[in-house]
Structures are given as structure tokens and as C-alpha cells.
Amino acid sequence: MFKKNTCILFLCCIPLYTQAFNGVFLTGSGQISSGMGGVSLAGGVDRTSISDNPANLVFQNDGIDAQISLLNIRSKAKILNQESSFESNQFIPIPSLSLIKKYNDDLNYGLSITGAGASVDYGKSAIHGFPADNAKDNLAIAVISPTLSYKISPNWSIGASLNWGIQQFRAKGVLAGLDEQGTPSFFTKSW
Prior knowledge:
Blueprint: H1 2-12, H2 31-35, H3 40-43, E1 63-77, E2 86-102, E3 107-121, E4 136-153, E5 156-161, E6 164-178, E7 184-188
Antiparallel strand pairs: 1-2, 2-3, 3-4, 4-5, 4-6, 6-7
């Protein structure tokens, strides 16, 4: 009886419909790692992989990597059960930069800067019939990672990285709430 109730309870917890979203970050740090499904944790091929695995730094050559990718964000929303839906199709540039310098054969230091973000621009007011700016928002994220790595043996290393992050969110024409009279108010931050 206990096993049957436990199984029924477990089955009730399984969702019938799910969607996954990893946020605005790519699958890996840098475009090469992202193109390979984020494998830079195990052994990165480019210098930007030190963001994910600081110990990888000693296996990289001196130099600079600069990369950029275009992230296509398509979104569709229905706001407050209005008849028409809102659609956005944006191309967002995602940059990354890394610099590596060897101190000696066993000690390396470097810096990696990776970006992430998202943006939508629906091209019309969030609520039809209300004078407001076009509904749009933008999120920009940068992660700056100074890194140090030491080779203990030919195939083994340790590393440490300090991740500093900065982000900026801007919204305009997006519904912010209702005022005392029940009239919708909108974000009006200048773009």
C-alpha cells in the first residue's frame, strides 16, 4: 500500500508539459565552446574557455582571442488577453575577449571577458488604445574573469578565477502597473 501511494504521489509530481530555457547565457563561454555544446569545462580549445575552467589556462598559448556571435531572439507574447499577440525578432551581438600570458612553464595568468544578453522590441504599445512608447526591453551582461593557473604535473593543473559581473536592464513602454485611478502606467526610460 505504501509503495502504491508513493508511486501515485511521484507520478502526480511529473509535469505533463514543460519548456526549458537556460536564460540569456550561451551553452558555453565564447563562440567556439558554444558551437560545441559547452565542452570547455572538460578541455577548452580556445582561450575564452578559461572562464569555465581556470585550470585550462596553463594549456593555452599566449595571445588574444576576440569573438562575436549574433544571437537571434524570437519571442511572441500575449498581454492581458488582448486579441492580437506581440512578436519580436531581434539579432543581438554577443562579444567575448580573452588575453593569456605565460609567466613561466608552470604558471600562467589571463583575463577573459564574456557577454550575454537578450532584447525584445514589439514595435507597438503594450496595451492597445493607450498612448505609450513601443514596448521593448534590453538586458546586457558582461562577466570579467581574471584568472591564474599553475601546472602541478604535465597533465594536471589547478586554477582560480574571480568572476566579476555587471548587468544593465532597460525597459520602455512596458506595463509597470496601475496608478491610484486604475489607469495603466508604463516604463518611460529613455532609450
